[in-house]
Amino acid sequence: MKRVAGGGRNMTVIGLALIGLTFALFSGCALFEDEKTAKGRKLYNHYCSHCHGESGQQGEGFNWERMPDPRPKNLASNAEMSTFSDEEIFHTVYRDMMDTSDQKVLDDENYFAVPTMPTFKYTLSEEEIWAIVGYVRTLHGMSLTYDLEGRRKELEGALQAAQAEMEQAQAVFDAAEAKAAAAQAAKEESMTEAQLENYEPEEVTLPEEEVFTAAAEKYEKAKSEFENFSKRPKKAQVSRPDLSIAEEDRTKQVKLGEQLYSEKYGCNGCHSLNDEGGLVGPALDRAGFRLNPTWIYRWILYPQAMKKHTRMPNLGISEQDARALTYYLGTLQAPKPENPIPPPE
Ligand code: HEC
Ligand code: HEC
User: Fold this and answer.
1) How far is residue 323's CA from residue 318's CA, in Å, rounded to a whole number?
2) What percent of the chain stands above pLDDT 70?
3) In this predicted structure, what is the pLDDT of residue 274?
4) Which of 258, 262, 271, 291 to mutate to test the pocket of ligand 2 (most atoms within 8 A of CB)?
5) Residue whose CA lies nearest to ligand 2 atom number 18
6) How many CB atoms lie under 10 A from the CB of residue 327?
7) Which has more confidence, 207 or 15?
8) Beta bridge mates, 273
9) What is the structure's pLDDT at 256?
10) Selection from 149-153, 235-239, 341-345 with the highest mean pLDDT
């Protein structure tokens, strides 16, 4: 009797487990959705909420008051945000930074008016940015309709096509090279010993080589685009720069650096000078005293190499621009803050 009763209990346990499993399987899709939204929320809170607010409301993020105009739209407003397509929202987060001191950039109506919305193209994977866009959609009561799997397939297809094209170009190049070598051998064969003595074959560049090089570059690009779909972009360690410069060039570089600071990379959206500008990163008034130029150069080119989850994005800065910015930051040598003024008696 005892044993039967025990068996019954076990059966019940197994039965419950089965029901649980079936439920988990059927609700698998919903669970997956939630996971994506949760991932988007986590990334949004870490990389966006200081400027946009946790709920997307204007004035909510701690950096809101400190950003220069024009400030961001209300991400929680359906009326404002429903006019954007999913791709347009993605683009605002992904696009390259452009120099707004250039009139052509200002005239381009597809471009933002201000550079203080940083790019995340060089910091996060495409999939992560889409997770954020999906989360932003929930802030104004919508959901992502973009075909993410279609995008993955598109990138995969482009990679396969580029690989086939490169292999084809390689075969054509190999054949052309073999043919040229055979012609050269035949020519040397027909020469006399004396002629060969002073003979220097001339360098030939085959047009097939150029075609192959172009195809190989296209393949590398397609490969990194496919990889960046699911993986964060990685770049090689920044090597130690030689920052020595003639004094007359330095003045020019400092001026350029100052311009890049606020008109291209929106550093002022996150850092303050003389108590003006953002509060996301430390004030930079004394950067020229506190920080070593080599360190600054490497940090601004690739912050994630030094601190993996820093809120400062990799802004896709060129080595040239990083130099100018480094020289500029070196000039920021404000005196130590004075003792706070004592309260009135
Ligand atoms: C340093 C502050 C800052 C951070 C960090 C930031 N943004 Fe922005 N964002 C802005 C500003 C400023 C604008 C307005 C740009 C404009 O109108 O030209 C903006 C614009 C936008 C827009 C377009 C709507 C509009 O106002 O034109 C979207 C969408 C957006 N940001 C999403 C994000 C997301 C998602 C993140 C995080 C991955 C993020 N932002 C991080 C400052 C920031
Ligand atoms: C989205 C906000 C954001 C933007 C844009 C940004 N930074 Fe930063 N920055 C930070 C944060 C946050 C830190 C602190 C790093 C940490 O500890 O994670 C930082 C750190 C730094 C530091 C080190 C400061 C110190 O005292 O240790 C320098 C230098 C710096 N940033 C320069 C720049 C420059 C130059 C630009 C523009 C090219 C820039 N930052 C753009 C957020 C930002």
Assistant:
1) 9
2) 88
3) 95
4) 271
5) 310
6) 25
7) 207
8) 276
9) 97
10) 149-153
Positive or negative, the CA dihedral 86, 89, 91, 93 is negative
Q: Which two tokens stand for residue 214?
A: 């172009």
Provide the whole-model pTM. Answer: 0.86
Looking at 133-265, which runs of residues are DSSP E strands? none
Q: Give the type of residue at 62.
A: F
Report the separation in Å between the CA atom of 53 and the middle of ligand 1, taken as the mean of its atom positions: 11
Q: State whether residue 276 is helix, strand or coil.
A: strand
Check residue 28 and give its pLDDT: 41
Kindly report, residue by residue over 222-281, the tens digit of the pLDDT: 999 999 999 999 888 898 999 999 999 999 999 999 999 999 999 999 999 999 999 999
Predicted confidence (pLDDT) at residue 89 exceeds the cutoff of 50: yes
Domains of the chain: 14-139 (1.10.760), 162-220 (no CATH), 247-330 (1.10.760.10)
Rounded distance from Cα 52 to ligand 1 centre (Å): 7
Q: Can you state the angle between helices 86-94 and 126-139, rounded to 10 degrees? A: 120
Is 267 in contact with 300 (CB distance < 8 Å)? no
What lines the ligand 2 site, CB under 6 Å? Answer: 118, 265-267, 269-271, 280-282, 287, 291, 296, 299-300, 307, 310-313, 315, 325, 329
What does the block give as tokens for 91? 């683009």
> Best of 46, 92, 130 to mutate for ligand 1, by most ligand atoms within 8 A of CB?
92
User: Ligand 2 centre from 110 Cα, in Å?
Assistant: 27
Question: What phi and psi values does residue 273 have, to the nearest 5 degrees?
Answer: -135, 130
Distance (angstroms) between ligand 1 centre and the Cα of 147 equals 23
83 has a pLDDT exceeding 80: yes
- Give the type of residue at 262: S
